[in-house]
Amino acid sequence: MKEIFKIDRQILPTQMQLIEERRPYIAFIGGSGSGKTIGGALKSLKCVSENAGIYGVVTAPSYKVLESATIPAYEEVFTKDILISLNKTDMVAEIISGGKIFFRTTKDPYLLRGLTAGFFHMDEAAESPALAFKILQARLRQEGTPMQGWLTTTPRGFNWVYNEFGAQERDNYVLIRAKTEDNTFLPQDYTDKLRESYQDEQFLLQELEGQFIEVGGQCPFDMKALNQMYQEAKQREELERELGFIYIYSKRQIAKRYVIGADAATGLGQDDSAFINMIASPVGLEEVCSGRGKMPEAEFADILARKSKEYNEAMITVENAPVGKATLQKLQELNSNIYKNKDKLGWPTTATTKPMMVEDLRLAIKDRSLVIHNLDIIEQLMSYVRDEKGFYHGTSGTHDDYVSALMLAIQGMKAIPVSIPMKITYPGSWRG
Hints:
- By secondary structure, the chain is an alpha/beta fold.
- Helices cover 33% and strands 21% of the residues.
- The protein has an 8-stranded mixed β-sheet, with helices on both faces. Strands 9, 10, 11, 12, 13, 14 and 17 form a 7-stranded mixed β-sheet that branches. It has a two-stranded antiparallel sheet with strand order 15-16.
- The model is unreliable at 418-432 (pLDDT under 50).
């Protein structure tokens, strides 16, 4: 079927590099308008042209991105004599060579399991979770095919894409960079107008130069330690998943002490409620289960109470704030083991205690006294910054609920009678 691969269009040098690359995993990292998605579609065209009957998986972070950007790029590249049909209900394309392309979102990475593929293309990959990449790698098992996976994306800070392709050189991984200005087919003043519009230098470097950079501030945590944590977490599979969003990594151990950090949300806005349950030992804290999702505070409290009872009456640390009071009240009604500060329920996050919480977490990461298995937590840590005004938060478009939960777990750990050699502060007035 090689005669199919005929392209009646000019191809950029970086796109051709992607098309011709033979290594198993490829990241095409570029600025806005650098031809990333089209390049990924051209790579897919070559793959189906040279491999009759091949199955491919093409993903985007949401249906909106699939419908507005990814699929239109494929319809532009795959002419009607190649693309027999595209069912936008089932999101499956039939190829004249006998192959199929499955278009999927990465919102729930576990739905990607069960597929067998000869290639995958993750469009806007930095907006997708690391778990999706890990699962897609395991889908490459169609015999007699190249079994390649490629990413096309604008970088988004030092998240999992950086850890996979930018942090170190590896034999089976290759990074292709493209600047917006490299696309000679764009309108003449396209890049100049964007440069004039983007006042934030860091944002400009990300969006036009395709550089890995923290936008909006500086991450306070050790990136080398986070990278090691990420690589170790990739090797760990959860034992089970509850309610669709709670990941269980280990069962209860008798006579062990557990602590739960919980960041509550109302369930009405963009924020999720998140918790991390950790086992406390002389060497530090290790995650045993975690979860996040949108739900009313009372429902969140029910989950926390149940997990506390399952894990030896684990101490639950919730922030004593307007959002969180309903969770604390319900936990009290359920007779749960709640962190107290001077006999007052919950942890007081203030302008004074917040920097201490961040510093405790920073030292725990630096000293490798934290073991995290959930890749989503590590991604949030990588995207957590201190801005020029001194405020801590996730970079634009990212969540930080797991980071808050982790900091609260560390503060809760201080109040339980177990010796843990973590370099963290113990101001007497803050002890529970």
